[in-house]
Amino acid sequence: MILVTGGAGFIGSNFVLDWLAAGDEAVVNLDALTYAGNLENLASLRGDARHIFVHGDIGDGELIERLLRQYQPRAIVNFAAESHVDRSIHGPEDFIQTNIVGTFRLLEAVRAYWGGLGAGEKAAFRFLHVSTDEVYGSLAKDDPAFSENHRYEPNSPYSASKAASDHLARAYHHTYGLPVLTTNCSNNYGPYHFPEKLIPLIIHNALAGKPLPIYGDGQQIRDWLYVADHCAAIRRVLAAGQPGETYNIGGWNEKPNLEVVHTLCAMLDELSPRADGRSYREQIVFVTDRPGHDRRYAIDAGKIERELGWKPAETFESGIRKTVRWYLDHPDWVANVTSGAYREWVGKQYDNFVPSPRLRGEG
What we know:
Number of helices: 13
Radius of gyration: 20 Å
Strand order of the largest sheet: 3-2-1-4-5-6-10
Number of strands: 12
Low-confidence stretches: 349-363
């Protein structure tokens, strides 16, 4: 079996669901169930003996040690992280504790476990650390995309904490020989995405008749990766990646945020039109940009394609249509996840901003 950390979050739960759909190897799923962890994501696995859920924190070294002894996994896939840039600006300490201290304690427990394995099991074991393209910093419009050799230049407390965790994982490979694999992905989107990130926030607010907040001029560029493609890439890296190597995972879909929002509005106009017949674009409002907002991220995913034969199956157009349809088909999930705590967060984040003088709804 494998041990997955953070397996009730957005990407982690998609990975667990895809893993068990593809085969019968069991998953021990450890998640602290903070605000973005949601067991409803895994409701289809209730009663499935292949899925063993454990409520706990990667910072709890004793718990990790017990799980490793009890279940003896052949691999660890570490999704556990605080991952929202805006939250890291308002409260960076949680990011330091989970992403740095938690990763350290997880690595320490795994190192001790791995060191006690027999020669064959030790050689076959893998620790896959899931990270982000944000560790590389920001790109100018014409800069080449991030490669695995790009210098780390994190610009937010979130990305700095993830950069630190990447460095720890690398150090445990080079110092102790722990067979570590690292992946750095671009912006994911798809089912079960907590509605604080751009795409689910826009879908949720549009359908609720609320403003669609766009930071600054909306020209921040991101590479967009459908979450099922990301899960397939992780499975491939786990199966065939070389210990000590880093693999960038991207969708080859660079889009300005405003274009993404316009695409979502057009799709909602088609699939779930407003009662008054007007476009959801009219709900767009530009707000003051967040501090230190990186202008562009772009992933060069050539290495993983050349060496491991992976490339994304979805275009942005096909993936975003699947995503919008999923949210339209699952209103109960959205209603349950948008708790009072979430509404307080959105109010704190957006209501205190001064709208820019640009016209509402205009690109």
